[in-house]
Amino acid sequence: MYKDIATPVRTKEILEKYGFSFKKSLGQNFLIDPNILRNIVSHANLTENSGAIEVGPGIGALTEHLAREAKKVVSFEIDQRLLPVLEDTLSPYDNVKIVHSDILKADVAQVIEEEMPGIEDIMVVANLPYYVTTPILMKLLNDRLPIRGFVVMMQKEVADRITAKPGTKAYGSLSIAIQFYVTAEIAMVVPKTVFMPQPNVDSAVIRLIKHENPPVKVIDEDFLFEVSRASFAQRRKTILNNLQNGLVNGKQNKELILKALEEAGIEPSRRGETLSIQEFGKLADCLYPHFCVRQ
Ligand code: SAM
């Protein structure tokens, strides 16, 4: 077993050797605690037959822990300055492929096909760059990748919203957009002290496991997300009020909205935050014939 990259001493050595300076704009907060890394990886339940997709390897702190557990690791890094560093730090591992790319622009499905042939169990495991957490998750979910799920670190406030249940303050359209595809739970809350440099916000690791069957079947998924976004636009307002304001031609068509709410069995005086994902699904389908502009 090689010496961990993620000890504070070794990390400092590596950064000095390469004259590396952190770019805040790229969300560069590196992990410097091997215990946290082991803990993150354990939540992914990898085996020697698994594949791991990582976003943003940094200097390879998490990558090497993944390489020790999985058959193959593919890691996407946007910052070119890190490529020679990674070549050096990850040289003991022959099962890691670094792809120099913005994850948001990468054809991840194609990379999986090329780099992970025959691997059936694939997890995304990452300490995400916080400035693009939600776009990265939504992209990887919308790409319909052949993966089991995600174990990812992010800002705690976003983790709370993603995993929130109906009736709570954190519950909103992000909870619905994510929980439509996966079951979501917080795996652990992480102190600021395990990062270099320390971020200004608290962090948490969440685990997302893809549903075998979606919690609700709908005519048009994007329309479901539009309806849920409209319903949460002003949290203090009723669902009727928010839909009137948020749907195209909603203002002129109060009667049609009331009819759809009745069909879906939802009181017009309720607030969006009380509706389950199943209720949003039903409501979206009842509104669809009158308000979906893409039909
Ligand atoms: N995995 C390392 C660790 O835990 O120490 C670094 C994590 S750091 C929070 C985020 C990493 O993502 C950085 O290496 C950063 O350069 C990279 N990154 C930022 N935006 C990216 C993007 N759009 N695509 C790929 N990598 C990105």
UniProtKB/TrEMBL annotation:
Its EC number is 2.1.1.182. Keywords: Cytoplasm, Methyltransferase, RNA-binding, rRNA processing, S-adenosyl-L-methionine, Transferase. It is found in: Cytoplasm. One of its GO terms (molecular function) is RNA binding. S-adenosyl-L-methionine binds at N29, L31, G56, E77, D102, N127. Coiled coil: none annotated. SUPFAM superfamilies: S-adenosyl-L-methionine-dependent methyltransferases. It catalyses: adenosine(1518)/adenosine(1519) in 16S rRNA + 4 S-adenosyl-L-methionine = N(6)-dimethyladenosine(1518)/N(6)-dimethyladenosine(1519) in 16S rRNA + 4 S-adenosyl-L-homocysteine + 4 H(+). Pfam families: RrnaAD (PF00398). Belongs to the class I-like SAM-binding methyltransferase superfamily. rRNA adenine N(6)-methyltransferase family. RsmA subfamily. Specifically dimethylates two adjacent adenosines (A1518 and A1519) in the loop of a conserved hairpin near the 3'-end of 16S rRNA in the 30S particle. May play a critical role in biogenesis of 30S subunits. HAMAP family: 16SrRNA_methyltr_A. This is Ribosomal RNA small subunit methyltransferase A.
